Amino acid sequence: MVKAEKEIANRPDNTAFTQQRLPAWQPMLSAGIVIPGFVLIGLAFIGIGVALFVTSRSIEVLEIDYTGEDKNSPCFKCSDQDVKNCVCNLEFSLDSLFEGPVFFYYGLSNYFQNYRKYAASRDDDQLSGDLDAFTSPSDSCSPFDLNGNDKPIVPCGAIANSMFNDTFVLYRVVNGVKKLVPLDGKGIAWWTDYNVKYRNPTVTPLKNAFNGTVKPISWPKPAYQLDTSDPANNGFINQDFLVWMRRAALPDFRKLYRRITEGEYEKGLPAGNYSLKIAYNYPVLSFHGTKKVVFSNVSWMGGKNEFLGIAYLVVGSLCVLMSIVMLIVYAKFKFPEDD
């Protein structure tokens, strides 16, 4: 008796919802629906794939390696880590207009920014401007939290310490005279990084916020001197710093360095000879890496990416092929009631 009462008490309400009696629609798939559906999907994917592939092929990309591993490289002398303050020049020429807007990247290979311990080696409280974190860095930054004299490092961590510090100056060579090409470094970082995630301490002048701290071991100057000419690009909101702190997912990557969009270069880089002056500071040969500069323009689909168009073409072709196979099977083995 007691058992029967418990079963009644646990029984769901006798409603259409709890008893699953609500009106429902279930598609009845048939060959007349599935086969044309596969054809339409396949044709749509093929069309999109062709558009993506053709657009990607129209994007211009110029890559120049400047690692200096080859003895014939103009940067060979700089690849020796014992050589300090080394400068090398890369000469290149363009046969036709390199259509703008032109994006200037630096690229690294065999560099695993996605390594878990490396990725966790940072202090987000520091990077958000918390002064308490300046004097007591997070343990996650170890061994880049304190220097040899037990002074706190700001910004701490392996990511910040390994910030890319090669610099570039581009010249256009006209009749043997070098003419500076303006490089725009504003707005190259993510909007959320610049306006939300990273903040400078609310201390004026900014230098005072770093009292009692030291710069990262591998940095030539402290964070408050990254760009003293522009307070909106100094400290933790420096554009180059933000770009570096946004980690890459793959070991071979490139990061945006500058845009070429100003003055007579608004429509792109004219045909002619160019000279790229490089302040070679960042060592890569110790981990068998390489360095390169990349000039590229973009389209409505972004940068050059032929894989996306090929993927759409493959999927679309497979859909059309499967529709043909299903049509043959249906024509040979269809049941009388399907007529």
Element order, helices and strands? HHEEEEHHHHEEHHEEEEH
Main sheet makeup: 4 strands, antiparallel
Adjacency order of strands in the biggest sheet:
1-10-4-7
Instruction: Determine the number of helices (DSSP H or I, runs of at least 4 residues).
Output: 9
Poorly predicted spans: none
Span between termini: 58 Å
Helical proportion, percent range: 25-40%
The helix/strand class is alpha+beta
Subcellular location: Membrane
Keywords: Membrane, Transmembrane, Transmembrane helix
Family: Belongs to the CDC50/LEM3 family.
Pfam family, one: CDC50
What does this structure look like?
With 339 residues, this protein is of the alpha+beta class. It is 28% helix and 18% strand. It has nine helices and ten strands. Strands 1-10-4-7 form a four-stranded antiparallel sheet. Strands 2-9-5-6 form a four-stranded antiparallel sheet, with no helix packed on it. It has a two-stranded antiparallel sheet with strand order 3-8. α2 runs antiparallel to α9. The protein is extended, with a radius of gyration of 30 Å.
Brief summary:
The protein is an alpha+beta fold. The mean pLDDT is 91. It is 28% helix and 18% strand.
Give the tags.
alpha+beta; 4-stranded antiparallel sheet; Cell cycle control protein; 339 residues
Any chance you could write out the topology, listing elements then pairs?
Blueprint (H helix, E strand, L loop, with lengths): L1 H8 L21 H28 L2 E5 L20 E9 L3 E2 L2 E7 L7 H5 L3 H4 L3 H5 L22 H4 L5 E8 L2 E4 L10 H7 L41 H7 L7 E8 L7 E2 L2 E9 L10 E6 L9 H28 L6
Antiparallel strand pairs: 1-10, 2-9, 3-8, 4-7, 4-10, 5-6, 5-9
Helix pairs in contact: 2-9
